[in-house]
Amino acid sequence: MDKFRIVGERPLNGQVSISGAxxxxxxxxxxxxxxxxxxxxxxxxYVRDIITLRRLLEDLGATVLTPELHTHKxxxxxxxxxxxxxxxxxxxxxxVLALGPLLARFGQAKVSLPGxxxxxxxxxxxxxxxxxxxxxxxxxxxxxxxxxxxxxGRLQGADVHLGNVTVTGTENLMMAATLAEGRTKIHNAxxxxxxxxxxxxxxxxxxxVHGAGTPTIEIEGVETLGAAEHSVIPDRIETGxxxxxxxxxxxxxxxKDCRPEHSTALISKLRxxxxxxxxxxxxxxxxxxxxxxxxxxxxxxxxxxYPQFPTDMQAQYMALMxxxxxxxxxxxxxxxxxxxxxxxxxxxxxxxxxxxRTATIEGPTPLKGARLQASDLRASASLVLAGLAARGETxxxxxxxxxxxxxxxxxxxxxxxxxxxxxxx
Length: 425
Prior knowledge:
By secondary structure, the protein is α/β, with parallel strands linked by helices. The chain has two domains: 3-19 and 234-423, UDP-n-acetylglucosamine1-carboxyvinyl-transferase, Chain (Alpha-beta prism), CATH 3.65.10; 22-231, UDP-n-acetylglucosamine1-carboxyvinyl-transferase, Chain. It is 31% helix and 27% strand. It has 14 helices and 24 strands. It has helices at 22-31, 48-60, 86-89, 99-106, 125-133, 167-178, 193-204, 236-248, 264-273, 314-321, 340-347, 377-389, 400-403, 409-415, and strands at 3-7, 13-17, 38-42, 63-68, 71-75, 83-84, 108-112, 137-141, 144-148, 159-161, 183-187, 208-210, 216-220, 228-231, 252-256, 275-281, 284-289, 301-302, 326-331, 351-355, 358-363, 371-373, 393-397, 419-423. Strands 22-23-1-24 form a four-stranded mixed beta sheet. It has a four-stranded mixed beta sheet with strand order 2-15-17-16. It has a four-stranded mixed beta sheet with strand order 4-5-3-14, with helices on one face.
């Protein structure tokens, strides 16, 4: 397995361009299953999760062409299989996003249950209950979800009340409802920018989706969807990771090709603790620590659904808090097991105590390089950030986790002054 070697204590300076959001590109790719015509997606990041979903689409019978690295032309004209097998779902839970489109267009779908994952169980019960409300028959057979449309062929519009906010659940049900007969209303829908981006694509395909980005989404079903061309939004989590990279290394970065309005909660928190973040224009942020890390003040944070502080930035923020003055508490409300990076940060010298869903950090703490092991995608990012701030060499094993969601992160960091290399094995 590949590993990163990082020699820290080097301020980052320069500019970095943000890639497309993989959490938006994935549902947009799945949405191509809703039509027999070509869906063209631009600004698709070249990351492991995208490669996995492309493989799934091709296994189903779709044609996926990449005339350019970040452009995918997907045509699901001759779908021959209606199943997402376990070997793909276990490596990427977003594979369950095939369920809604397959069920809506072809009236049948079989998707392996994702099971647990490193950061929590993340069950898909809400997806399945929503499909049942749309008239589908949903059964569990030997670890697979087997779903079929009503006897007369089309799903039926319905009122769906989600018990908890679920991004993939909202997306799955929204896609299924586009081809349902009648009107569907999704209550307590996820408000993430990625949900709205998917809705924008669906509407370009001929769907009638209203209210995406709010807690109530209305979908007026249509009989067929057609071709569309769409550019995926920038990745707000990559944006936030580079904002923290500049702060934790006492550097100065120009973060380009981003959407500042998608990161307001994080930007507000960074400004509160003493990081200087300015909007140069609608797609560029300037970030630097005013007088070094010792000017940063510890500040508590609670992860909550969008537009509040994102759970996907919790690990990176924890790394930054090791360098802030005072005691901070991070409370994780979304996932029950998302502090595994804390033990690895302690190997660098961080003072972190975990009690249930709250981690308490004492800072500032001098960090010293050590050998670390990544446990999940965002934990990987936090270890890289800590390695950039640590004295000496840090080696991070199992960086395939970070490859799932960050496009060539080591190359981007090297370009702005980091001493980071990838050892291939």
